[in-house]
């Protein structure tokens, strides 16, 4: 029985990996379960044994990793004494982590560039959007605290600061995923994120 469970898990992992590869190459909408089965070298019946349909397979693929909006929201939620520097470090680390986590990079590329959110994928879209909204709300609360301490740029409200930060950081994610040669997150992420914060906060320190 143990061997059977191990083989089943191996088959499931092969299907998920095949789905990642094909979704990345062809897009979610243009990939069939039959193509996934062929790439994974399993029967179509094996795919249906593990996954109800393509939407279920897509959802389980997302469950394998913590994507940046979700990860950043979780980190902010866990830090009761967060400051703007903490938020800055979370953004920088999230960009750098893409360099070292190939699977996260693949799955986020699929989510941003290879996925048409049809009705059957609505649950995955809603989940992603919920973490985006949570991140923005947490940032707004942090910027509200900074405003009370005189740290927020006078032209910015806490809400505008949160929306600006999210939009620009997601833009950096998108640019890197679209063209990894465009910039080096390990070398450049800190300077780019600091430039964002200099537009949001008073007297943001210059780094050497």
Task: Write a structural description.
The protein is mostly helical. The chain has two domains: 2-62, Homeodomain-like (Arc Repressor Mutant, subunit A), CATH 1.10.10.60; 68-200, Orthogonal Bundle (Tetracycline Repressor, domain 2), CATH 1.10.357.10. It is 74% helix and 0% strand. It has helices at 2-26, 33-40, 44-50, 54-62, 68-78, 84-100, 102-113, 122-148, 158-178, 185-200. Helix 1 (2-26) packs across helix 2 (33-40), helix 5 (68-78) runs antiparallel to helix 6 and helix 9 (158-178) packs antiparallel against helix 10. The longest helix is centred in the middle third of the chain and has 27 residues, at 122-148.
**Major beta sheet summary:** none
Order of helices and strands: HHHHHHHHHH
Q: With helices defined by DSSP (H or I, 4 residues minimum), what is the helix count?
A: 10
CATH architecture of the largest domain: Orthogonal Bundle
| Oligomer class | single chain
